[in-house]
Write a structure and sequence with these properties.
Blueprint: E1 2-5, H1 10-22, E2 27-31, E3 42-45, H2 51-58, E4 63-66, H3 74-95, E5 98-103, H4 126-143, E6 149-153, E7 156-158, H5 166-176, E8 182-184, E9 190-191, E10 193-195, H6 196-207, E11 216-218, E12 226-227, H7 228-239, E13 246-248, H8 250-256, H9 261-266, H10 271-274, H11 282-287, H12 296-304
Parallel strand pairs: 1-2, 1-4, 2-3, 4-5, 5-6, 6-11, 7-10, 8-13
Antiparallel strand pairs: 9-12
Length: about 300
């Protein structure tokens, strides 16, 4: 049994499809309101902040994949993410279940220095501190031998379907709707974006590779990084129309955040948009050289096609 904890999000769904396609049909989907992707999927309703519910959700699983996402709300993150991580670790330890954790980069410094698996945590906001805390909790449990686990870390998403990110919501979703895209902070700095189906494929692969455990892995991104201006140029070529964009300066988020909470929640992430964002996934590609990364052009074509 392979169990996806937090199965309703875009990563959980892509992961489930890939597990079914390449590894097993014995899949359990866990969330507050789970829904089947395949006829054979087993559904379990559970609140992972409840230790007993988490234990029941994990019981009988060979591998559990933690892909839970929460709305951009610092207070909610502080209240729920650490509890969920402790409950999942305890449940996996109790049942001898391997744990695969889908992580993000919020705990990394927002600098132009390339990010590798060895990059030290230096969060500059509340959400980043929460992500550093839960990653550290898992790393300590791994080092103590409490649980066999692996961390799969990814940068900002872009992708099809229900994918949510600044890039999707401000740029590609608006282009698809025939609206002018908004670029956060700068259109001239290169971005590292992960295609959500690639993230699901890579996570499934790592979770089913025994020697990958006990480590942190950066999931694969197109190494031919583009600026927002270049991404929009690709969108022009794909759609065959001229696309003008507006750059939203940091001040817009600073001032707007006083009145619109989501803008304020985004503010701590913006330093990474001021300069080049270089997420290095060379470790993954060295270990899995045959993994086919989706190019930005192919991904944009799928989103806008």
């Amino acid at each position: 049994m392979h169990t996806v904890l937090g199965a309703n999000g875009p990563i959980g769904e892509e992961l489930t499809r890939e597990l079914y396609r390449g590894f097993t049909h014995d899949i359990r989907l866990v969330s507050r309101h789970p829904a089947k992707i395949h006829d054979t999927d087993q559904l379990v309703k559970a609140d992972l902040t409840d230790p007993e519910a988490t234990d029941r959700a994990v019981a009988g699983s060979e591998v559990a994949y933690l892909t839970v996402g929460l709305p951009m709300d610092s207070e909610l993150w502080e209240r729920q993410f650490p509890v969920m991580m402790r409950n999942v670790i305890d449940a996996c330890a109790e049942h001898g279940t391997k744990l695969v954790f889908f992580d993000n980069t919020y705990m990394y410094p927002g600098t132009t220095t390339p990010q590798t698996e060895a990059t030290a945590f230096a969060p500059n906001g509340r959400k980043g501190r929460v992500r550093a805390e839960i990653a550290t909790t898992l790393l300590e449990a791994m080092r103590a031998g409490k649980v066999g686990a692996v961390i799969c870390r990814a940068p900002e998403f872009y992708g099809p379907g229900k994918t949510k990110s600044l890039t999707n919501s401000l740029v590609f979703d608006r282009i698809k709707a025939g609206k002018k895209p908004f670029v956060p902070v700068s259109a001239k700095t290169v971005r590292s974006l992960i295609w959500t189906p690639d993230a699901g494929r890579a996570m499934a692969l790592i979770g089913n590779t025994p020697d990958a455990y006990g480590q942190t892995w950066h999931l694969p991104v197109d190494p031919h990084r583009l600026t927002y201006a270049q991404l929009i140029q690709v969108a022009e070529e794909v759609t065959g129309r001229r696309i003008r964009h507006t750059v939203l300066p940091l001040a817009v988020f600073t001032l707007g955040g006083r009145f619109v909470k989501p803008l304020g929640e985004v503010k701590e992430l913006l330093p990474r948009y001021r300069g080049d964002n270089v997420f290095d996934a060379s470790k993954f590609m060295k270990r899995f050289p045959d993994f086919a990364i989706t190019s930005y052009r192919k991904g944009i074509t799928e989103i806008l096609g």
